[in-house]
Amino acid sequence: MTVRLERQGSSLIVHNSTEKRGAITPDLYQTIAAAMEQARAPDIRCVILTGGDFFCAGGNLKVLATRAALAPQERRAKIEILHDVIRAMHACPVPIIAAVEGGAAGAGLSLTLACDFIVASRGAQFTAAYVKAGLTPDGGLTHALSRLLPRQMAMQLCLIGGAISAEQLHALGIVFQLSPIGETLGDAHKLAEQLSRGPARAQARIRQLLNEAQDTTLSDQLDREAAFMAEAQGDSEAAIGIQAFIEKRKAEFQL
Ligand SMILES: CC(C)(COP(=O)(O)OP(=O)(O)OC[C@H]1O[C@@H](n2cnc3c(N)ncnc32)[C@H](O)[C@@H]1OP(=O)(O)O)[C@@H](O)C(=O)NCCC(=O)NCCSC(=O)/C=C1/CC=CC=CO1
């Protein structure tokens, strides 16, 4: 049972097939970090994160139980490894898809919500979990949940540590697609294929704009949008897309 990085066409796939419901190992951090690095190549159009029967149960509680023996700064350094991975995902130039079988818990949920699209198996369960172990969320979970959910719902999830289903998250627009059990990776590939037919540079600009919009003022965001739109208008992708519209045909962006 391992973590591995695979390339299929223009997609990179991080497989997290570790024991204990995909509980996090150092390999997972290294492999996602490597995928984020490789995603800078122009022929990579998408990254997919996937797991086994259960996507990822978060930090391994048996390992976390040993952390009390470490000095506070050593404990902090271990958490920062996860946070560097989340930062790298935020800065990734291509879309990231989570193909989630079974569900996600703790930092596994943080990783899921750091993705742009979530394809989840029907009945999958998502839980913050941390509070049940006397811990507090990390991996940007409170940042994500406080923006995605009403405050009270985020509080309920984090303070009680209960689960929310893929169906509920789908109704909220957080899960992009519900798939039959065992089919999330196949459906993620189809989505990656669809995305790869779009304009790569426009997609990278859009991703950056939406990610940065979370922490900025309207005025700063208008400046950013103006700069990016000016860039986009001078890009051959816009020439291709606009010409296709005028000629009433589907745009074919270079792959
Ligand atoms: C909801 C569950 C994830 C899955 O429930 P279920 O399908 O019923 O499976 P179980 O029977 O509970 O579990 C099967 C076996 O896996 C072991 N296991 C599950 N999760 C973990 C885990 N996180 N760590 C270690 N082992 C785990 C479980 O003990 C079973 O083993 P045995 O067959 O030997 O008995 C459910 O399992 C669950 O709620 N798990 C705990 C979720 C959790 O609390 N996660 C950690 C949150 S804290 C965190 O993520 C923190 C960090 C901190 C810093 C840096 C990096 C990462 O994370």
UniProtKB/TrEMBL annotation:
Keywords: Isomerase. Its EC number is 5.3.3.18. Pfam families: ECH_1. One of its GO terms (molecular function) is isomerase activity. InterPro entries: ClpP/crotonase-like_dom_sf (IPR029045), Enoyl-CoA_hyd/isom_CS (IPR018376), Enoyl-CoA_hydra/iso (IPR001753), Enoyl-CoA_hydra_C (IPR014748). PANTHER family: EG:BACN32G11.4 PROTEIN, ENOYL-COA HYDRATASE. This is 1,2-epoxyphenylacetyl-CoA isomerase. It comes from Pelagimonas varians.
